[in-house]
Amino acid sequence: MKNFITRSSWHVWALTAAVVLALYFIVLFPTLRLLGQAFSSRGLEGFTTSLQGGQGDQNVLLNTVILGVLVGLLGMIGGFVLAMARTRLNFRGKRLFHWIAMLPLISPPFAIATATVTLFGKRGIITDKLLGLEVDVYGLPGLVIVLALSFTPVSYMNFCGMIRNLDPTLEEAAQSLGASHIKTLTKVILPMLLPGFATAFLLLFVEAAADLANPLALGGDFHVLASEIYFAVAGNGDVAYAAGVALALLIPSVSVFFIQRYWVGKKSVVSVSGKPAGEPRPLSSPWIKAPIAVLAGAWMTLIVLMYVTIAVGGFASILGVDNTLSLEHYRFIFRLGSDAITTTVSMTLVAAPIAVIIGSLTAWLVVRRLKKSAGILDLIGVLGLAVPGTILGLGYAIAYSSPTWLFGHQLLPAIAAGGSVLGGAVGIIMVYVARGVPASQQSSIAALRQVSVSLEEAAASLGAGPMAVLRKVTAPLIAQSMLTGFTYTVTRSMTVITAIIFIVTPETKVMAGQILDEVDAGRFGNAFAYCTVLIGLVLAILIATELLNRLVSRRSHTSKETV
Amino acid sequence: MTIDLHAEPSSVRFTNITKRYKTGRGSVTAVEGFNLSIEPGELVSFLGPSGCGKTTTLRMVAGFEEITDGELTIAGRRVNDIEPHRRPISMVFQSYALFPHLNVRENVAFGLKLRHEPKDKIQELVDSAMESMNISQYAKRAPHELSGGQQQRVALARAIVTEPRVLLFDEPLSNLDAKLRVRMRTEIRRIQSELGITSIFVTHDQEEAMSISDRIVVMRDGRIEQVGNPQEIYQEPANAFVADFIGSSNLLEVDASAVELGAGDNEVLVPVLGTRMPIRTTGRPWDPSHSWKVLIRPESVRVRHEDEASAGAHDVEARVRGYQYFGDHVRVECEVDGLVLESRMYGHGHHFDAGDACRVSIVAEDSRLIRD
């Protein structure tokens, strides 16, 4: 049963219309235009060819599925182990552990790929110099490792939340009934986390299957659907064919996303209703502790190794070949890349607040205002995340690289890709917003469900109209989750390349795009320097936000971790 | 349409108020044909078990629930279609609903600030409201730093500071412990009569309703069972439901064929404990086509040891089934002719053991014949 707020007032209608219109332009319209192209005859050709394995001699569809499954499994296990280590092992420096585990999330896509080549490539520091092995990381094995490392933070976060919410008394109950530590793990903890494993696997499957940046940098001859799309556009300019291939990737991605969201998500037996019934207790059995510690330790070592390589690589002539100290790379990026740095940061800082506003207003409409249509609006909102970046970007290229017409009137000029207004910046910002809205929306929905309706009723009974309630009560109470949405959008926007690869223009340089160019040209040193600067900037923004947050909410009773 | 908030206490009139919710399969009626007129300055309680529609009715006054049918007026003006924030009411919530992002003072000032009152006026009104609720010393605290009772005082101060015409209480005391509840209800009554604000108080606690109200509305299944002052509700309950809900009661079956009309008004002779007792009916006259019950309050049942001297009243042999000691009173359960009677006796010197033989008498004047 909804409350009084469902009553109409023109403000609310105006706001609803504005939100729906915004969502339409940032996600729905590009997606629909893409589908339009995909269902053209050339598009359907691309679609059927993809289903049959693609044009070349390798089966691209199968490659994509294999990559997705392997990354899904590895990342799922990795996330579980890291989360168990953080929540259930006793050691010092848990905050540091957490930050390192999350590091891949705030770094650009090529960072780990480039470091992997430098460390484990044909002439890699470890494989060749140290061990004298003949290894080729290009192709499937390298991709699996890099993608798993990159996306594990997603499953790690997911598991952390779930394990925290496990009622520790259930384990005590099992043990008091005679279950050993191992049995408690296999019969109680693991079964309760089953939806978590499913979620982690599905999310990572989609991320890996749809990723474009790493297959470009590290795929070698191993082609996947996403790279097929890229080559169809960048190589042949065959947008319709690309849209058809995109459809083949879109269908499984979107299905898996919604299966995860509406089915697996609901199957969760872990209570998320209120406060957990106590802190998770440290594990006591060495038979469980040891493997977790070893695996988590190995994983962390690998991540640290990667980032040390990135940090050092920017200051070496050619890391692994000529290790002399050199500031050449930094000189290069500050000479040629300062443009890209300021553009990226400013576009991000424009996009993030917009994403937060749209996301939290959507959440508010979904939770408090709408009845039957709430589900539809919720779905449109999260579409920006459900549609893989490559495909959303292609949709933008199709929809916005020429003016938008409505009933014979020009509604919008070209706003994306070359030759459009503001050098295509508007299109890129819109993509940032589209990718940021879902996070903001989801965290705000969760927060709003915790805010008692009686607070809003109290405000109304004291004379606050619907808009005043929203401004003075609701918004301040979900400020924390809006902040989460902000930091998420910042990290996503700063590091994204896949979703904007088709609409970056020479006028609007984006850091992630510059890194791609440097990696393409084999100038790894420059790429490392860019990555380091980019990670530094993201961290700076995150820390500044957190400090601001502490300053503002010193009085607020809600305390929450960010990132 | 806005109603001037700075005004005399107002009447509240419910005319055939009905609330239906649409569900998947048709609709559910939460409140039906609710008629009531509340006088200016009166404190009326809505009392009933959960799901009886009392809170729904209150929320219709606040404007949080739309009225399906009927008319609601405040101070003679129809308010059915007025939005909650434009109604001259304030509400005190069960959960207190204090804004967690504001401190105590800001919470109290919330409503006044919305009206853009001049700063010094807000200052003055907030100060006096906090003073009267004894919370001035917590002005700078956050709500979560206060105890439940203190939070409720803040909620009350916040509600009265805007000088509403009607004050609504939605089970405001149910989250407090027993002692505090008694203190707070006295406090609420004091403030309410000082300010003379028309108030509606929703509760499921009959003792609370009895102690605080000018009148009580007893509800069941969305309908009014009885309206009356606390004495009427307790002494002259309209039916067995009201009698059973208010206080504890012995309700005895009546064999209609054995009832004879008595001497006085509304008095009938009813066979109880082997004798014909003159018992008054409540409200309606005797009508053998209905089902009736005899209501005997436990305090009207006297139990004495077999060897104690009789007080002269008609008494019968019985056997003690249970005995509980409460300090100021004792509760005795006796078995008479297969019936179980509960007795409550105040003062000291009453001691029984289960299994004791005893004699039981009933104060007929305080007993009533009521509709089932």
From TrEMBL, chain A:
Topology of this chain in the membrane = Multi-pass membrane protein
Membrane-spanning intervals of the chain: 12-32, 60-84, 96-120, 140-159, 188-206, 239-259, 292-320, 340-367, 379-399, 411-434, 477-504, 524-548
What Pfam families has UniProt attached to this entry? BPD_transp_1
GO cellular component labels: plasma membrane
Primary subcellular site in the record, as a coarse category? membrane
**Statement: the UniProt record of this protein carries the keyword Magnesium:** no
Q: Which Gene3D superfamilies match?
A: MetI-like
Q: Which residues form the ABC transmembrane type-1 domain?
A: 61-260, 341-545
Highest taxon in the source lineage:
Bacteria
> What is one Gene Ontology biological process annotated in the Swiss-Prot or TrEMBL record?
transmembrane transport
Q: What subcellular compartments does it reside in?
A: Cell membrane; Membrane
Listed A to Z, the keywords are: Membrane, Transmembrane, Transmembrane helix, Transport
Q: Which family does it belong to?
A: Belongs to the binding-protein-dependent transport system permease family.
Question: What name has this protein been given in UniProt?
Answer: ABC transporter permease subunit
Species of origin: Rothia koreensis
